Amino acid sequence: MLRTEHLSLAYGDKTVVDNVSLAIPEGGITCLLGPNGSGKSTLLKSFAGLLSPRSGQVFLDNRPVAQWDRRRLALRLAMLPQKPIVPDGIRVQDLVALGRFPHRKWWQRNLTTDANTTLDAMAMTGVADLAERPVEALSGGQQQRVWIAMALAQETDILLLDEPTTFLDWGYQLEVLELLSTLNRQHGLTVVMSLHDLNQAAQFADRIAVLADGQLETIGSPAEVITEAMINRVFRVKTSITVGQDGRPFCSGFAGSLNHQQPAGIIS
Predict the structure, then answer these.
(1) What is the DSSP letter of 169?
(2) What is the pTM of this model?
(3) What is the rounded CA–CA span in Å between residue 210 and residue 222?
(4) What span, in angstroms and rounded, lies between the C-alpha atoms of 76 and 189?
(5) pLDDT digits 0-9 by tens, 59-93
(6) Given CB 3.0 to 4.6 Å as the disulfide criterion, which of 93, 176, 206, 258 pairs with 236?
(7) Spatial CA neighbour of 45 closest among 6, 10, 14
(8) How many Å apart are CA 65 and CA 63, to the nearest integer?
(9) Are 232 and 238 in contact, with CB atoms under 8 Å apart?
């Protein structure tokens, strides 16, 4: 469905992603992990066609993303950036309804289908009772649910999220990840997201891709990827791994940092 072949991305003369080839499994949850500056956000932008490759390609259905008409691409995938901007004074239902824009012809507005889809998206994300509230008046967790509802109203097969738990407290982080997991299981939504927390990725992802210095360090299941050796090598942190009854790994303790510039026990 969505894949890259020998993809390199750059900002000006600085290469940020270097020769990355990977495939995103259809109907699964894929997490991108890596230290700050490793290329996670840049890679997500290229998936959405927002950044042209320096070399290589991003493919959707075996066709380069760059060759897709923007409206048709918006019918296949939706992306939520790390810091979406809330329009002043906009209500929840109006923001969610913006997700219907790619489905409308220029002469169409306020169609019954759009209204029903908007209501369904709000119901699925638990924000229907907030429909008349200004988005800016909501908590961070509620706002994130509204943005996800907007993406669902877009009715795409693929949802891309750049660090969807950033700036949320721990309870809201888990709430958002559980919502995405539910949408994946119940509706077959393909989810690709970047995360900072290794334990959250291990708990919710089907597949994890680790980036380091713009290159693909490793990719596989959480059990294959989340290892003491990988964390030591990529994040420069000594840790211990335990495995739960579900077979998923858990970073259960940090023994210290191998990087004097990074406080012990913190993974960026």
Answers:
(1) -
(2) 0.90
(3) 11
(4) 11
(5) 999 999 999 999 999 999 999 998 899 999 999 99
(6) 258
(7) 10
(8) 6
(9) yes
